[in-house]
User: Which sequence fits this backbone?
């Protein structure tokens, strides 16, 4: 069952068509990867889904439990708050001077702000706010445990090794309680052991938490290992879609990645 349906997504920057009439669906509780060479339009699709860009044409509908959200009509912060779309970035965007725990509490600021009555209950230390604060800390510690970082809770996020910062970004996104988790090159810069650990974490989020995952990744070993379905872009257009096995053997995909001539691919 589709959680996310994207239809005829198109966005232009001046004379450049960055995404050209792209349609695909991402199933609930599944991992859908978007792959393609550099400049294929992958991150632009993410930026449309999360409200950083507004598409020129197209519909992006998230639907679950009888509710529907048309993402192209929503402000960016409402896409996260109401539709439950969370993301990480290709370039890490933690708060480096905050502790690991504080980074996860910041992710829950909407809940804490509402519980505080927009500061009044927090300033007065009312029970409603203290209860919400304890729940936020408990959720943060839960995700620190899930990513193996409880012992680093009081360390500054900027002091962590690169691989740990990647895991912390995923934990922070999960603290928002997303329906759809968008991961933008989470394995970038990781060594093979760290990539394998990250792939295992992403699978557990799908299997244990029932969260749909949309993944951009250049590490094909990670993509082929964990993806349920793959969408391939090239120069802003979709050139293939299917299971990992189907995509791996698709002539258009081989041509896009290897630059092989048509007769060479056919042979």
Assistant:
């Amino acid at each position: 069952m589709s959680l996310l349906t994207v239809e005829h997504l198109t966005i232009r920057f001046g004379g450049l068509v960055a995404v050209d009439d792209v349609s695909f669906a991402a199933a609930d509780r599944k991992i859908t990867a978007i792959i393609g060479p550099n400049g294929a339009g992958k991150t632009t699709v993410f930026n449309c889904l999360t409200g950083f860009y507004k598409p020129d044409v197209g519909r992006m509908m998230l639907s679950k439990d009888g509710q529907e959200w048309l993402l192209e009509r929503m402000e960016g912060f409402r896409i996260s708050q109401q539709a439950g779309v969370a993301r990480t970035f290709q370039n890490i965007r933690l708060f480096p001077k905050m502790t690991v725990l504080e980074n996860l509490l910041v992710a829950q600021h909407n809940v804490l702000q509402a519980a505080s009555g927009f500061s009044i209950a927090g300033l007065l230390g009312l029970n409603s706010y203290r209860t919400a604060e304890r729940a936020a800390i408990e959720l943060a510690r839960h995700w620190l445990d899930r990513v193996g970082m409880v012992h680093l809770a009081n360390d500054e996020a900027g002091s962590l090794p690169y691989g740990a910062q990647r895991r912390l970004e995923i934990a922070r996104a999960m603290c928002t309680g997303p329906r759809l988790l968008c991961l933008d090159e989470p394995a970038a810069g990781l060594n093979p052991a760290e990539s394998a650990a990250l792939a295992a974490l992403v699978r557990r989020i799908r299997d244990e938490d029932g969260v749909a995952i949309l993944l951009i990744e250049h590490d094909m070993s990670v993509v082929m290992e964990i993806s349920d379905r793959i969408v391939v872009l090239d120069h802003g257009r979709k050139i293939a879609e299917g299971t990992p096995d189907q995509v791996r053997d698709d002539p258009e995909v081989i041509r896009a990645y290897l630059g092989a001539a048509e007769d060479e691919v056919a042979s």
Notes: The longest helix spans residues 127-146.
